[in-house]
Amino acid sequence: MTEGPLFPEGRKCSGCGVKLQNEDANKPGYLPVQALEREPVICQRCFRIKNYNESSSVTVEQDEFLRLLSQIGEKDALVIHIVDIFDFEGSVIGGLQRFVGTNPVLLAVNKIDLLPKVTNWNKLLNWVQKQAKELGLRTQDIIFCSAKQNKGFDRLLEAVEQYRGDRDVYVVGATNVGKSTLINRLIRDYSDLDQELTTSRYPGTTLDMVNIPLDDGQYIIDTPGIMYPSRYSELIGPKDLSVIMADKPLKPIVYQLNEGQTLYFGGFGRFDFIQGDHQSFTCFVSGKMPIHRTKLERADELFEKHAGEMLSPPNRDEISKLPAWTRHEFRIPRGSRSDIFISGLGWIKVNGESGAVVAVHVPKGIKVLLRPSLI
Fold first, then answer.
1. Mind giving me the DSSP string for 88-150?
2. Is the peptide bond before 40 cis (omega within 30 degrees of 0)?
3. Tens digit of pLDDT per residue, the chain (375 long)?
4. Angle subtended at Cα 63 by Cα 62 and Cα 66, rounded to the nearest 5 degrees
5. Residue 176 gets which letter from DSSP?
6. Domain spans of the chain?
7. Strand 346-350 to strand 279-284: parallel, antiparallel, or no bridges (unpaired)?
8. CATH match of 53-226 with 3.30.413.10
9. Which one of 109, 143, 253, 333 is at 20 to 30 Å from 152 when CA atoms are compared?
């Protein structure tokens, strides 16, 4: 942070109270140096809300986010928890229930536009309900939506109206799940921004939340997005992120594999079919992600020689910045319908009913798990 008269130590935003900084536009308190001459001096996020009725995304590390969440259970609030259907288990906030207490939670499941048009929405709802329950999350309602296509938001606003009463509305979510789009829609529908952006806070509220005044005297509380290092989206740069993150409806790719065959997903991950009858596996990944098939016995050698070139993205320089790969082995029970989920990359559906032993190799820390099939 710049020292001296431009950014004196302890200078804070007069809108939300966060300490000002000019190093990272994605972190709370960002203010371009030239904006210091404005009166009042407010951070970029507050400025956008006040002047454009629009919030911008900021992020915090996991520990800081949990400190923010700990405030919500002490309030009388409605919580909107927004998650990404493409990265469901990676974007769900673990342990949310113990932080929000008895406050009602609306689960907004975003990016449904990525799912195939033939998706059975009743089955998908049952799947989300079951997964949320297993993760310990109690939801008042589950709403499917698409921020990109502006679908489902009317239904979400109806649910907000139904459950809010005279409560404040807290919006929480991980990075890259569409939280800002939701916040901006709430601002347009509920907020009277003719008044000044609030400078008052509730007792004990930390400084990284922005309180947006509503017409009835309550507030929308815009919380920073949480960064989970277990998601690929937190490990890679913008160029590779545009490849790995799906932005169009998924086109499932089916591979007929014999045991002893391997699939490489660029240089991001590897799937081994170790043991089982000849069967098919369906890959649900971004359409920009190249997939390369090889023999398991050649897989290590192939990566050694071609990572960052034939097996790309990422390129060699970016691969060298990622953590060393870790192997995750799974035994698929006979007759089960299962996905191998890789946070931020997508999932592989096991179609055979005769059982299988498979393994996934990804950088250490990336969340990999076996789950009931989404589709």
1. HHHHS-TTHHHHHTTS-EEEEEE-GGGS-TT--HHHHHHHHHHHHHHTT---SEEEE-BTTTT
2. yes
3. 344 445 656 788 877 778 888 888 888 888 888 887 777 788 888 888 777 767 777 777 778 788 888 888 888 999 999 999 999 999 999 888 888 888 999 999 999 999 988 789 999 999 999 999 998 888 999 999 998 888 898 899 899 989 998 899 999 998 888 887 888 777 777 766 544 443 333 333 445 788 887 777 888 888 888 888 899 988 888 888 889 988 899 999 999 999 999 999 999 999 999 999 999 999 999 999 999 999 999 999 999 999 888 998 998 888 888 999 999 999 999 988 999 999 999 999 999 889 999 999 999 999 999 999 998
4. 85
5. T
6. 53-226, 238-372
7. antiparallel
8. no
9. 253
What 3-state class would DSSP assign to 84? strand
Interacting residues of 239 by C-beta distance below 8 A, sequence separation 6+: 313
The packing angle between helices 153-164 and 179-190, to 10°, is: 60
E strands, 214-365, in order: 219-222, 225-226, 253-257, 261-265, 269-275, 279-284, 291-295, 325-332, 338-342, 346-350, 356-363
Sign for the CA dihedral angle at 280, 282, 287, 293 comes to negative
Q: Nearest Cα to 349, choosing from 279, 274, 286?
A: 279
* Cis status of the peptide bond prior to 313, with omega within 30 of 0: yes
142 vs 159: CA distance, rounded Å: 9
Structure tokens of 252? 């499932």
> What amino acid is encoded at 229 in this protein?
P
* Both structure tokens of 268: 């991001």
